Amino acid sequence: MKNTERNCVVIGGGIAGLTASIYLARAGLSVTLIEKTKTIGGRAKTEVMDGSYVNLGPHALYSKGKSLEILAELGISPKGNSPAIGGKVFYNDSPYNLPANPFSVLTSDLFSWRGKMELLRFFILLQTKKLKSNREISVDQWLHENIKDERVQKFILMLIRLSSYCNDPDRLRAEVAFKQLQLGKAIYVHNGWQSIIEELKEKAEKLGVIIQAGASVQQIKGKFPQFEVKLSNNKSIFTPYILSTASPNELRKFLQGYEIDAINELIPVRAACLDIVLNKTPNPTVSFALSMDQPLYFSNHSNVATLSDNQSHSVIHVMKYLSINEPRTDLKQELEQFLSRVQPGWEKHVISKRYLPNITVTNSMMKKQKNEMEQIPGLFIAGDWVGAEGMLVDSSFFSAKQAAMSIIELNEKMGV
Ligand SMILES: Cc1cc2nc3c(=O)[nH]c(=O)nc-3n(C[C@H](O)[C@H](O)[C@H](O)COP(=O)(O)OP(=O)(O)OC[C@H]3O[C@@H](n4cnc5c(N)ncnc54)[C@H](O)[C@@H]3O)c2cc1C
């Protein structure tokens, strides 16, 4: 088969595209993966900044999430560590120790006695998976109906932001939020998520996947079993199956000309991030902090994972979880001020600094899309806005595997 005629074209070289390519190639299909930027990785890219490996904002895998399960199936076990639970929490501008276990909840200055009892009850129900929520109920509504103490409400909201990255509690379903809170420990990966990308890439290439970076898909024409995938370098690839892992906006662009229902009800989750490498942390005793007053996050990932060639350097992530109605203002100063609360005098120790004002963390918090575009047989989709399982990268891994399996099954049936 010529390189211009493949069994499947995969669009996008992030986690979802690479994962799907491996499953497809393992089943014997010839696959070309097209990535529009010069380097693969998508939002899981890690930039090397003055000898430190810096993800695009704080990135953690969850010990009970789908990602590790699927990576294990692919023969990859990411190396990293879990942060010790603890740190600081800011409430009414004052710092408190972050209550991390039943004993520290009971001894915390943060809550009243009644609040402590309510929070402990919440944790027990969460751990025993007995938290009940009607399918459609939002986080806001659930908290309003089930938690009386206002501080406990704010504390639970803060934990939900931490695990889901979502700051729209009136839209996020309580059921989805609780599942995120049950995903176990966070894992920070040594040398950043690029190390996972490199392993996926190596596996894909060994199986014969052609990875073409630096060319974007401009347009799709034709129909199953003969699609034409037109690229920005004026070349075309002909294929019976297409698997797109591009964002919904990109997908709409290259599907112009097809009758498709609008991709509705997508609510993207966004964040503003300040990623900094310091040669010294002024306050080494605090490596993690959250705010209950504002949706703010601080973490020194180097305290947990190896992220710099020079062991004394620290990779710090400061982030604001953005709500859908967040005004488009410059948030850099707010992030820097929060960093000053936790690490006063950090400015003197900066080696590298990057500000991401409005990055898409996940393409949608509500995921209703099926893997196959019903109006265009042969065209499949995957990513963190597709499928019924998980959020964030768990849904990218899971939907990628599901879409690849659907193509393999269909191909066996059709014998194309
Ligand atoms: C600040 C931040 C923090 C995060 N933290 C976490 C975390 O802690 N835990 C977690 O689970 N997840 C986290 N995530 C989410 C996680 O990074 C993403 O869910 C995951 O990387 C998405 O992978 P993907 O392959 O689905 O999409 P992407 O990585 O977006 O890949 C899609 C690819 O398609 C390419 N593309 C688009 N259009 C075209 C075209 N026309 N032609 C060719 N190629 C195209 C793009 O360039 C891109 O490389 C975080 C994300 C951010 C931004």
From TrEMBL:
Descriptive protein name: Amine oxidase domain-containing protein
Superkingdom assignment: Bacteria
Domain Amine oxidase, first and last residues per copy: 15-408
Instruction: Give the species.
Output: Sutcliffiella cohnii
**InterPro entries linked to this entry:** Amino_oxidase (IPR002937), FAD/NAD-bd_sf (IPR036188), Zeta_carotene_desat/Oxidored (IPR050464)
Q: Name one GO molecular function term.
A: oxidoreductase activity
In terms of Pfam families, this protein maps to: Amino_oxidase (PF01593)
